[in-house]
Amino acid sequence: MILRTPLPEFFNDICEVVRLFISVSEIRLAEPGQDADLIHTHAERDGQWVEAFDYIGAHREAALAVPGGDALERKKQLKRLIKHTLYLLLRDALGVRPPWGSLTGIRPTRLVYEALEHGMDEAQALNWLSRTFDVSEHKSELLGEIVRAQRPVICHDTGVFDLYIGIPFCTTRCAYCSFASDELGNGRMVEPYLDALLREIAATGELMRTRGLKVRAAYMGGGTPTALSATQLTRVITAAQREFPNAIEWTCEAGRPDTIDRAKLQALLDLGITRISINPQTLCDRTLEIIGRRHTTRDTLDAYALARSMGFDDINMDLIAALPGEDIADFERTMRGVCELAPESVTVHTLAIKRASRLHERGYNQVDAPTAQRMVELARDMAHAAGYVPYYLYRQKYMAGNLENVGYSRPGRACLYNIDIMEETTHNLALGAGAISKWIFPERRRIERAANVRSIELYIQRLDEMVERKAHVISMYDDAPLN
């Protein structure tokens, strides 16, 4: 598709809306004099922005009074106007209404909180969301449930932070994965990586102590943390708990059932960790083979039973809707099987085919949007029937049906870390290769990031630089106290 726009700084935003409706491999800006498939015009007159789009003979125009405020706020409002104008054109021209309307962002809950901050009650906020962005009633109701679950536990204390520790190793790489993780192979990089990680833990622990900042929730993810040995897990977590003591929640993403054994689970229990995630993704063995998982449904059931028998009382299980080769009946069997196990929480992801994944390399076509949507709706209905409530949500690019990932939990068992990281209300100190720390400046409505390099080798070589990046961001916080 060829696009002509006088505002190329909004090119990516326009592309996001196009991909809500049309599967296109490439969208390019028109060269001077080149014909375009999609034409955008922009004007400012009589104190208004006027946006117009033309596509296959259809035309749509909309205007908005140029708002006051700072440049960032004006840019945000202009972006919304551009995206929604194009959305309305394509919706009417193609006869398709995406469930999330014109929203393409990762965190739709943020808009609900924004409306609440402006004095609306929940019903008014959800109505505003539907009117302004054409969000479906079903998705508005979902957001309302999530906000109600979050509000009693959401944190705005700038004196605390969450901790993320990344273990970027897996026994194999899943076909849908695009994360910065390496297969274990012969394991030659594991010990050098852990040595560097322990150095980063010690250095950042000192940074936090000197500023009087306290850890709220800690999360060990990856990759697959339980790809490590019991001894290695103990080594890393002991160091983290020494530097960042008294977290009110500690999660270890055990992940793949085939990496879980009694020794590793006992090591976690000995360290006081009783919240883990056991992630089958599906209970269909045929699909597990297709996506490159080296475990079976029986492995999942055995790992879950072992964890329960040892005393783990807070278990999450991850599932993926719209996996290759699965139909609605396959997904329903998986969801029913997991609900019968009765973990404290279930996270239902919708397959997103990232460009760096093997599924993308193979040219896999996602399931059609109506099928993906039915799977996600089925998950919600079955979760409700089993006593779960949705407590966090996020969206991704390239997701089947332009849908969402939703975390469900038993009442009172929501994962604090997941809420904090998705709503971006709490500082996040992220350690390890590919980890991205975020420091929150609420009064400035700004987030500063400090990213670690993705490469394990470069992370080890440039560790001092990674620590310095964090120190720089935290020093900006020192210069602008928020309490």
Automatic annotation (TrEMBL):
Keywords: Iron, Iron-sulfur, Metal-binding, Oxidoreductase, S-adenosyl-L-methionine
Domain annotation Radical SAM core: ranges: 155-385
Organism, as annotated: Candidatus Fimadaptatus faecigallinarum
Stretch forming the signal peptide: none
Gene3D superfamilies per the UniProt record, alphabetical: Aldolase class I
One BP annotation, GO: porphyrin-containing compound biosynthetic process
EC numbers for this chain: 1.3.98.3
GO terms for cellular component: cytoplasm
SUPFAM superfamilies found in the cross-reference section: Radical SAM enzymes
PANTHER family in the record: COPROPORPHYRINIGEN III OXIDASE, OXYGEN-INDEPENDENT COPROPORPHYRINOGEN-III OXIDASE-LIKE PROTEIN HEMZ
A Pfam family recorded for this sequence: Radical_SAM
Protein name per its UniProtKB record: Coproporphyrinogen dehydrogenase HemZ
Keyword Signal in record: no
UniProt GO molecular function: 4 iron, 4 sulfur cluster binding; coproporphyrinogen dehydrogenase activity; metal ion binding
